[in-house]
């Protein structure tokens, strides 16, 4: 796979998500300074970057939660910031968003958390169909037995899974994961990484996975994009991206692996 | 020698892009007002269109009632008793204690019950809405709704504001009733007035306009509590203090606006009376 193929100036009509020249500032803080990124069908793209480098801002712009200052984002070939409310909702039904802290509705139990988006977005489902869809989504994340539990009773890893199940219930074509393994122990992180790969395999989703966890990146990525100084500095396979002498990228790699692995 | 090192927050805090127009305080106030105005406008736009989330409105009505009923019962009852006790000496000086039922009923219906109900609801319900929406905001639950193609403004703000608007007048009528019950017990104990006589004397003194204007006033108070608390919750800032601040600001701001509205509405009603 070619490293850093020069992106064309125009959005890629075949890509599921295509981002060009994206900039975003908050006050005097320039967070994104011209991001280019394409996600192809059924591909897992991992975006790596330090905390505060604007990773969450990037995917929030993709679903229209934030609006960019300049640049263009297309999802399924539609320009996100030009969509009317109704079409934006239509696009969002096809995109699943897994939040960094899961964002489960804490006044609702697990079953209600899953039922809520389903009921709000589909008309005329029978009680039985709703129950089946909930069971399928929970089985997909390996938590079939937790229907009546409240979010506050779940562990961090379980909350992550329920958050993912809640998006899977609408059968998304794109998944956006915000720091799926942050704050989880290594074993639970490994399980979440497997889950991300299973979702890709079973549902043929295209995904952007945002993380600073290189283990997660290595396990889930078809391609890795390195976000540095508000731009995608390098993009390619995991090994290609880190095959460089750039000290900023080397230190990112060394911090994750060498420091902990070497005696 | 001491060196002053800037804290991390100071060092990275973004500088304001533009100098303030008048002064930072006045500018913030103006921005707040225009923010609030567009929130208000959005309420009326969103409330008119489907879906209406009727079940959620009913659930929120129940929440408002459930939260404030015990306190309103207690306060209304005590207000009725205390106000009767306090008024008796003045009336007794003219040998006019038979006026007590009429006086109490007027005071309760015209002014005490609407104000007591509104202030209790601002405290109990306003803080609850502010904290609930505030914590949903800072834990990204509101954004989670939005990306599931659910309109959080409709589902959270419109339903809660409609619920408080409907429930505060209802609770106000209940509060008047409980206040009269308290007053009756006291009057019955001291003057031996029968219930029939008490009610007759009480209702002879209030007009339809009295009840009508108190109900209208309570609609306004209920709407005020709902919309302000939702606004504060929706605009909660993240961090450990954000939620508490939102809850606190909901109560303070609601009470402040309620007092201003009370003054304005009393003026308008007196106008109508004298017409
Ligand atoms: N809504 C916002 N308002 C102001 N600043 C924001 C907002 N969202 C993010 N930021 C700032 O943008 C920067 C990048 O944030 P983020 O995308 O959350 O970083 P991360 O890469 O850790 O996910 C941070 O410095 C953050 O403070
Ligand atoms: Mg983030």
Write the layout of secondary structure elements.
The complex is a heterodimer of chains A (263) and B (275).
Chain A: E1 17-26, E2 29-39, E3 44-48, H1 55-62, E4 70-75, E5 78-79, H2 85-93, E6 95-98, H3 110-121, H4 127-140, H5 156-168, E7 174-178, H6 186-203, E8 206-211, H7 214-220, E9 223-228, E10 231-236, H8 238-242, H9 247-256, H10 258-261
Parallel strand pairs in A: 3-8, 3-9, 6-7, 7-8
Antiparallel strand pairs in A: 1-2, 1-4, 4-5, 9-10
Helix pairs in contact in A: 3-4, 3-5, 4-5, 6-7
Chain B: H1 8-12, H2 24-47, H3 54-93, H4 100-138, H5 141-147, H6 152-191, H7 195-204, H8 208-234, H9 240-274
The structure holds adenosine-5'-diphosphate and magnesium ion.
Residues 55-56, 100, 178-179 of chain A line the site of magnesium ion.
Q: How would you describe this structure to a colleague?
A:
The complex is a heterodimer of chains A (263) and B (275). By secondary structure, chain A is an alpha/beta fold. Chain A folds into 2 domains: 16-94 and 175-257, Rossmann fold (3-Layer(aba) Sandwich); 103-171, no CATH class. Chain A has helices at 55-62, 85-93, 110-121, 127-140, 156-168, 186-203, 214-220, 238-242, 247-256, 258-261; strands at 17-26, 29-39, 44-48, 70-75, 78-79, 95-98, 174-178, 206-211, 223-228, 231-236. In chain A, strands 6-7-8-3-9-10 form a 6-stranded mixed sheet, sandwiched between helices. In chain A, strands 2-1-4-5 form a 4-stranded antiparallel sheet, covered by helices on one side. Chain B starts with 7 loop residues before the first helix and ends with a helix. Chain B has helices at residues 8-12, 24-47, 54-93, 100-138, 141-147, 152-191, 195-204, 208-234, 240-274. Chain B is elongated and about 70 Å long. The relative contact order of chain B is 0.14. Chain B has one domain (52-273). The chains are: A alpha/beta (263), B mainly alpha (275). Bound molecules: adenosine-5'-diphosphate (ADP) and magnesium ion. The site of adenosine-5'-diphosphate (ADP) has 11 residues of chain A, from strand 2 and helix 1.
